[in-house]
């Protein structure tokens, strides 16, 4: 059994507190705001959510330490350290939280590159694409890059991050400087707006593109625009793929008009209109739970057994969770998709 954090990049752990005289770190929200799913490696069905006894209590303040908190030009930035003694799947981890709702954008464990989140799904992409560079649009603190380079050390990665403060925090608190030194010939980071930078590259430049672009707690509006996907498609190798964090009901935006479920649907619709509805696949880490969370994938339906054969056992379970977008969209239990 594998312990999987259901929501994607935007995992709501704590609510932005009102200013208080005390400097105690914020109290993490209970599991009902942080659903978990346990996936059986031998099962082809979507994982199911469960809660533990005492989950309503969340993580006590004493098990969470605030390492940094400040306002950058683009983000509310907070770095948290969760104690190893905490009775929680995030025990021992370091977290990068952005946006006013306090959504997780990166997860780091000291001795384990796995995150038990959608970031691990991102690391399954390399076996499905031809040899060549991979772009990560929305680099964060580098959780996806770290795992990909750990599994596939010859991979060339170009990371795009809008906020220079996020990269500074990643270098100070998430060992990004060490990763850059270790993979100095493979890892390049660009402080830039990815959507504006990508069109300047030659067509067919990337074998794979990972899209993890959020702003103010929501998938950026450009990803609901067909023109964005047309431009990204141009930059793909002929047999390349795009994997994207589409969000879902788990996402909490600063703008209440940006409903996570609606934004997810509009993002997938724009993708399917550009790539074709039979060339888009979806994976829902939330199963049937209210806090569903979606990843999208473009390209032909992959050879699942061949795919699993090139992955470590901890990641094989994700392969069987993919479904054709058109079937999910038209399914009786997913009428809105």
UniProtKB/TrEMBL annotation:
SUPFAM superfamilies: S-adenosyl-L-methionine-dependent methyltransferases (SSF53335). One of its GO terms (biological process) is methylation. Residues 18-28 have a biased composition (Pro residues). It comes from the Eukaryota. Keywords: Methyltransferase, Transferase. Residues 1-30 are annotated as: Disordered. One of its GO terms (molecular function) is methyltransferase activity. Belongs to the methyltransferase superfamily. This is S-adenosyl-L-methionine-dependent methyltransferase. It comes from Rhynchospora tenuis.
């Amino acid at each position: 059994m594998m312990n999987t954090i259901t929501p994607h990049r935007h995992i709501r752990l704590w609510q932005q507190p009102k200013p208080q005289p005390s400097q105690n770190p914020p109290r993490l929200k209970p599991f009902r705001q942080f659903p978990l799913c346990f996936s059986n490696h031998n099962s082809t069905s979507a994982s199911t959510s469960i809660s533990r006894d005492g989950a309503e209590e969340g993580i006590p303040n004493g098990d969470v330490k605030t390492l940094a908190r400040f306002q950058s030009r683009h983000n509310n930035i907070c770095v948290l350290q969760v104690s190893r003694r905490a009775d929680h799947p995030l025990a021992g981890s370091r977290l990068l939280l952005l946006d006013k709702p306090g959504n997780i954008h990166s997860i780091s464990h000291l001795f384990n590159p796995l995150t038990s989140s959608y970031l691990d799904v991102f690391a399954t992409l390399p076996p499905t694409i031809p040899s060549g560079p991979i772009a990560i649009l929305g680099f964060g603190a580098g959780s996806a890059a770290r795992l990909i380079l750990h599994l596939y050390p010859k991979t060339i990665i170009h990371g795009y991050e809008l906020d220079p403060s996020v990269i500074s925090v990643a270098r100070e608190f998430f060992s990004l400087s060490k990763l850059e030194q270790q993979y100095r010939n493979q890892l390049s980071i660009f402080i830039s707006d990815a959507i504006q930078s990508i069109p300047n590259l030659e067509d067919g430049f990337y074998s794979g593109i990972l899209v993890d672009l959020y702003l103010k707690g929501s998938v950026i509006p450009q990803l609901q625009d067909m023109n964005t996907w047309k431009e990204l498609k141009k930059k793909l190798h002929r047999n390349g793929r795009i994997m994207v964090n589409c969000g879902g009901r788990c996402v909490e935006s600063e703008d209440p008009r940006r409903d996570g479920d609606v934004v997810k649907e509009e993002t997938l619709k724009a993708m399917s209109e550009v790539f074709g509805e039979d060339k888009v696949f979806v994976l829902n880490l939330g199963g049937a739970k209210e806090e569903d969370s979606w990843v999208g994938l473009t390209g032909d339906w992959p050879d699942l057994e061949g795919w699993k054969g090139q992955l470590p056992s901890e990641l094989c379970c994700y392969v069987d969770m993919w479904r054709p977008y058109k079937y999910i969209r038209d399914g009786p239990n997913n009428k809105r998709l």
